[in-house]
Specification:
heterodimer, A: 489 residues, Amidase signature (AS) enzymes, eleven-stranded mixed beta sheet, B: 95 residues, Histone, subunit A, flat
Chain lengths: 489, 95
């Protein structure tokens, strides 16, 4: 990415980004443009560069912030009416880390309200349009962030991924999108959806940029008790002690005349070959033919580079979506109970007493999809249905966790589609919640298991729509995952 | 299972929504479809499987029990509400 220096000023980079943001206004990418604040920060960085002072690793780099990250710059609305008017007095840890390295937020991006959705059509501010076809959806929920990077407005953007909200819009727009291992990046100051699956992630144009952002944003945060001690920046050294990487396997790398030393794929042995799993259960007519073809092409590419392809059967994954749409609504209906119009954001004015204030504010402030999910959450948690739905889904989750553990005892990574279809038409699924949910069928299981997934570009359809695939790795494999994605270019 | 009008009214009460009539109708249809989909877990035999509620690898993350300076003070937090008086948030009558 372009970083400010003595020749290219931060002000130039920021002005360019703001100009492009305005040029693409009709895509509805931004909920707020940070013109004044961004230029002020850029000039400060330029002064420091001119004085020869040390600047951060992201000095003057313009970025876009998904509008569910709290910071005092602009209202944090999560694209929901109920949060309109909320000027956060606190800053998310991830935002503070990026800005400490000199990154400059030029705007807040559109999302499905409270990140509930797979198309950005559930936004109170209207849908974001796909970067390659304005008749189609951006994907979601982090649609604005994905399009901001795909249209080259910014160098990178932040996202949140509870069930695919980074990976799916990344694949709909032909860029990289990472859902890290659960607990890798602090969630302090990010609007909560489902606490046991929510992850912070990024959109970038290259794996190198993703690696840089991860090395900056990851790590333990005393403000978020569910952050792991830093492994990302120490993984290379810790990895040599990983006994799982010991089993020998035949290497097909090289001409075959001599056998190369058998080493599992890892950062300390970048020339070794990897075992990559493909999931047989996903190879059927429910997946768009061009996505299946893109997967085949990448499999051939991996084989040609000497990597080993292993067919996996993962039958429990077919229950992932149903389990997800029980567990996540259950968690989010609790998390969203805090939005009541009393302490911040929108408040319905016409209420005669406190109960009416809650009910009117929540009725007017939430989008239809928010209401569906909150009500489903209350349904699966209510007495009489708890055992049949919530408990059963929690048990199904155990099967999914175990299925990934089993798979990663056989392979280093798994390569699968992100979603069954490329970007669909605006309005096509918005009135059919189950059809919309089915778009998440291949992405949600990773969140239930807490493993890492990186959406990578994988060509285009005949019509010119981007295609994406996801590379999945075990927990804490994020750095290797990003490194290995370079093999798929 | 069949989702009836009164089920939607009950769930709206639990959720604190004052739903207008036409929304009750559309939510009845939508929730019926969603519940039909998630009911496919019925076929799963998981009696002897332990549930998983979270996938974080650590437990009991402790910190010292001490008062630390906060990013936002009382004034900044009260400034977010529609109406405050004497350091308290003002709402319509409770009873």
């Amino acid at each position: 990415m372009k970083i400010a220096n003595k020749k290219v000023t931060a002000e130039r980079l920021v002005r360019d980004a703001l100009e492009k943001a305005k040029h693409f206004e009709d895509y509805h990418i931004f909920t707020f443009l940070n013109e004044e604040g961004a230029l002020k920060k850029a000039r400060e960085i330029d002064k420091r560069i001119a004085r020869g002072e040390k600047v951060g690793r992201l000095a003057g780099v313009p970025y876009a912030l998904k509008d569910n990250f709290l910071s005092p710059e602009g209202e944090t609305t999560a694209s929901a009416h109920i949060l309109q008017g909320f000027n956060s007095p606190v800053t998310a840890t991830s935002v503070a880390k990026l800005e400490a390295e000199g990154a400059i937020m030029i705007g807040r991006t559109n999302l499905d309200a409270f990140a509930h959705g797979s198309s950005t059509e559930n936004s109170y501010f209207g849908p974001t349009l796909n970067s390659h076809d304005k008749q189609r959806v951006a994907g979601g929920s982090s649609g604005g962030s994905a399009v901001a990077v795909a249209l080259d407005i910014v160098e990178f953007a932040t996202g949140t991924d509870t069930g695919g909200s980074v990976r799916q819009p990344a694949s709909f727009n032909g860029i990289y999108g990472l859902k890290p291992t659960y607990g890798t990046i602090s969630r302090y100051g990010v609007v909560a959806m489902a606490s046991s699956t929510d992850c912070i992630g990024f959109f970038t144009k290259t794996p190198e940029d993703m690696d840089l952002l991860m090395s900056i944003a990851s790590g333990q945060d005393p403000k978020d008790m569910t952050t792991l001690p830093d492994y990302y920046n120490t993984e290379a050294s810790a990895e040599s002690g990983d006994s799982r990487l010991a089993p020998s396997r035949p290497s097909s790398r090289g001409s075959g005349a001599h056998s190369a030393p058998v080493v599992a794929y890892g950062l300390e042995s970048p020339n070794s070959c990897a075992r990559v799993g493909i999931i047989k259960d996903f190879d059927n007519d429910s997946v768009h033919p061009e996505i299946r073809k893109a997967l085949k092409n990448k499999v051939e590419l991996l084989k040609s580079k000497g990597h080993e392809i292993v067919e996996l059967e993962m039958p429990a994954l077919k229950y992932g979506l149903a389990a997800y749409y029980i567990l996540v609504p259950a968690e989010l209906c609790s998390n969203l109970s805090r939005h009541d119009g009393v302490r911040y954001g929108f408040r319905s004015e016409k209420s005669k007493d406190l109960d009416a204030l809650y009910e009117n504010t929540r009725n007017e402030g939430f989008m239809p999809e928010n209401k569906r999910r909150i009500m489903i959450g209350n349904f699966v948690l209510s007495s009489g249905f708890y055992d049949a739905y919530f408990l059963k889904a929690a048990k199904a989750r155990t099967l999914i966790v175990k299925e990934y553990e089993k798979a990663f005892s056989k392979v280093d990574f798994i390569l699968t589609p992100v979603s069954p279809n490329p970007a669909f038409k605006l309005g096509e699924k918005v009135d059919d919640p189950v059809a919309m949910y089915l778009e998440d069928v291949m992405s949600v299981s990773l969140n239930l298991a807490g493993v890492a997934g990186l959406a990578i570009p994988a060509g285009e359809t005949k019509e010119g729509l981007p295609l994406g695939l996801q590379l999945v790795g075990p927990r804490r494999s994020d750095k290797r995952l990003i490194e290995f994605s370079k093999e798929l270019i | 299972m069949d989702i009836k009008r009164e089920d939607i009214v009950h769930l709206a009460e639990l959720s604190n929504f004052s739903l207008p009539e036409k929304e009750i109708k559309s939510l009845q249809k939508d929730l019926q479809g969603i519940i039909k989909y998630i009911s496919q877990l019925d076929e799963l035999k998981v009696d002897d499987v332990e549930p998983t509620y979270q996938v974080f690898e650590m437990e009991n993350v402790w910190r010292e029990d001490e008062i630390l300076p906060q990013e936002a003070d009382r004034e900044a937090l009260l400034a977010l509400t529609k109406e405050a008086k004497d350091n308290q948030i003002k709402v319509p009558k409770v009873l």
